[in-house]
Design a protein that fits this description.
Helix content: 40-55%
CATH class of the largest domain: Alpha Beta
Mean pLDDT: 93
Shape: flat
Bound molecules: 5'-O-[(L-methionyl)-sulphamoyl]adenosine
Number of strands: 25
Radius of gyration: 28 Å
Length: 644
């Protein structure tokens, strides 16, 4: 059985940020989940490369649109690869195969009479590339708020107005066509207000696909973009898609335009459109236009792809907006992955090693731990149901409740005490405890494989399982299927604990490096120095690039709404003191900082933290699991002195 799902195809006016990553990771999770349900799931993503926005971005970078889109599209593809996402098809709107599909669709709509030639005169939003007929020229665009401009153009129009009833019927007949409910209701009320015909070509646009029969017209962005869902799987018998996963801001295009285009072309409709909420950073939607982007790479380097995946699925209630922060990312990682799952794994396996000679003990019939058995048995179908309903956070919560119950059970049973007793009842309780704990880890590995593919595989191997994890099926998964006597594998920490302040600081430093690398890619600025290989050596010239100087804290205050951040004015013997934000508030009070001499990395690119621009970094030592300790001097050193 096939299951075809898609993400939106992303505009290439910016390199991938965490917003795009969120959608693509969720899609990858669904794909893996469906595979574990026995479907042959196929995931398509890609890049949306035509239109004036992209043309302008290319111009600003001094590149041709094709050169520019080649670079950014490759960035997306590579980023997904680096994150280990299982993308089956990657479609670009500049791909010649895509062109054929667009023409086929256009032609079918033309022949069926739903595309006709007309003229548009009125307001236009350059940024959204939308005719904004509901406002006057010069008034703000209803979507983005930027001022509209006047245009007058001959266009091909799509007769969207003819589809009002058929669309409403569709939403009625298939109540789950648009999810969640709040988006469905918005769409229905929008359609009920009546639909205007839609311009689907432009003559003012150069960077796009020309209409084959009328080459001065270029197919307009949405008609072009939506067709990738078909062109990506052309000739494979995969259409219609089972699921279009999208961000909520493009619901209208997917739930109204796209089914109408397909109805006009007499082609099958996608089965379901699911819109998620926005990832917010510093209280606003993360986006290129707001400039508040975080890139996935720094996060991956510090918490791993699994850590990022877990955070996004657990922290955000799917369908609603959710906030991202470096602190929250590391906080979740430490609490749920390092202390939770990771700790339970190493603790359990170590006890199996120490008390059972490294072989899974025989846990008997389960009658010694009926409650835990029942909880484990319930968790499996509840998890599956939650994931089927896109309630990822709830599903994960259920697994963590089970892990927590096992932790508690271990503490209550105290296997380290039981092991000291030779009595059969103590030995039976010991075997039962460790069997149950190991068996729950096995269940967790299977359930969590779609979300934590790397860690689940590690846990699976450490339990000594031989069959490939990705061939496991969710159907029939139940407690007590772990074979007693099985030798456990080599033990390795799954999620090492991170020191909060240094992990956050490292992500910020990596973020600045990533920004510089991407700018260099587009020919803006010098390429950043190659990062030293982990544990590798660097030449002295590289060290010399780091401008470290002695500074003195003139003022300090905690950044409101944060636990770790402190904002300081630091004197560096320059024309003006610098504002520096540092993650040291848990270790130092503002009073302790004022007047103190510190070491500052003075030539870091500025970085905004909580809306405050930080112009440098305070150097501190961070021991694993401990608070940061500021670097200082035993002798007095003048402010401004360089460290060499
Ligand atoms: N090219 C169009 C989509 C065409 S689909 C046929 C487009 N591209 S986009 O680059 O702007 O990407 C939009 C998608 O990226 C959103 O729908 C969402 O899936 C994802 N996100 C971008 N920023 C996001 C957040 N801040 N939060 C969550 N998702 C976000 O629109």
């Amino acid at each position: 059985m096939k299951y075809y799902l898609t993400t939106p195809i992303y505009y290439v006016n910016a390199a991938p940020h965490l917003g795009h990553t969120y959608t693509t990771i969720v899609a990858d999770v669904i794909r893996r989940f469906k595979r574990m349900q026995g479907y042959e799931a196929i995931l398509t993503t890609g890049t949306d490369e035509h239109g004036s926005k992209i043309e302008n971005a290319a111009k600003a970078a001094g590149k041709s649109p094709q050169e520019f889109t080649d670079i950014i599209s490759a960035e997306f593809r590579e980023q997904w690869e680096t994150l280990g996402l299982a993308i089956d098809r990657f479609m670009r709107t500049t791909d010649p195969r895509h062109r054929q599909t667009v023409f086929m669709l256009f032609d079918r709509c033309l022949k069926s009479g739903y595309i006709y030639k007309g003229a548009y005169t009125g307001p236009y939003c350059v940024s959204c590339e939308l005719y904004a007929s509901e406002v006057q020229v010069g008034e703000p665009c209803p979507d983005c708020g930027r001022p509209t401009e006047a245009v007058s153009e001959e266009n091909y129009f799509f007769k969207l107005s003819a589809f009002q009833d058929r669309l409403l019927e569709l939403y009625e007949r298939q109540p789950d066509f648009i999810q969640p409910e709040v988006r469905r209701n918005e769409v229905i009320s929008f359609v009920k207000q009546g639909l205007s015909d839609l311009s689907v070509t432009r003559t003012s646009l150069k960077w796009g696909l020309p209409v084959p029969t009328d080459r001065k017209h270029v197919v307009y962005v949405w008609f072009d973009a939506l067709s990738t869902y078909m062109s990506a799987v052309e000739g494979e018998g995969l259409w219609p898609a089972d699921l279009h996963l999208i961000g909520k801001e493009i619901t209208r295009f997917h739930a109204i335009y796209w089914p109408a285009f397909l109805m006009a072309a007499e082609l099958p409709l996608p089965k379901r459109i699911v819109a998620h909420g926005w990832l917010l950073f510093e209280q606003e939607k993360m986006s290129k236009s707001r400039g508040n982007m975080v890139r996935p790479e720094p996060c991956r380097r510090v918490v791993g792809a699994d850590g990022l995946r877990y955070f996004l699925l657990r922290e955000i209630s799917f369908g609603q907006d959710g906030s991202f922060s470096f602190d929250a990312l590391v906080g979740r990682y430490n609490a749920d992955l390092a202390n939770g799952l990771g700790n339970l794994t190493s603790r359990t396996l170590k006890m199996v090693q120490d008390y059972c000679g490294g072989a899974i003990p025989d846990g008997g019939d389960g009658s010694l731990s009926p409650e835990l058995g029942a909880l484990a048995a319930r968790t499996v179908p509840e998890f599956i149901q939650a994931f089927e309903n896109f309630q990822f956070s709830r599903g994960l919560e259920g697994v963590w409740a089970l892990l927590g119950a096992v932790d508690k059970f271990i503490v209550e049973r105290a296997p380290w005490q039981l092991a000291k007793s030779a009595e059969e009842s103590a030995q039976a309780a010991l075997r039962d405890t460790l069997y149950v704990a190991a068996d729950v880890l096995r269940l967790a590995a299977v359930l969590l494989a779609p979300v934590l593919p790397v860690a689940a595989e590690r846990i699976w191997r450490q339990l000594g399982m031989r069959e490939p994890l990705d061939e496991q099926r969710l159907e029939g998964l139940a407690p007590r299927q772990l074979a007693p006597g099985q030798k456990i594998g080599e033990m390795r920490r799954v999620f090492p604990r991170l020191d909060m302040a240094s992990a956050v600081q490292r992500m910020r430093t990596l973020e600045a490096a990533e920004l510089a690398r991407q700018a260099a890619l587009l020919g803006k600025g010098a390429p950043p120095p190659e990062a030293a290989p982990e544990g590798g050596k660097i030449p002295i010239e590289d060290f010399a690039k780091v401008d470290m100087r002695v500074g003195q804290v003139l003022a300090a205050e905690r950044v409101k709404g944060t636990k770790a951040l402190v904002q300081m004015k630091v004197e560096l013997a320059e024309s003006e003191p610098r504002t520096i934000v540092a993650g040291i508030a848990e270790a130092y009070t503002p009073e302790q900082l004022i007047g103190r001499k510190v070491v500052i990395v003075a030539n870091l690119q500025p970085r905004k933290l909580r809306g405050i621009e930080s112009n440098g970094m305070v150097v501190a030592a961070s021991a694993e699991g401990g608070l940061p300790v500021l670097v200082g001097f035993l002798e007095d050193v003048p402010v401004g002195a360089r460290l060499t």
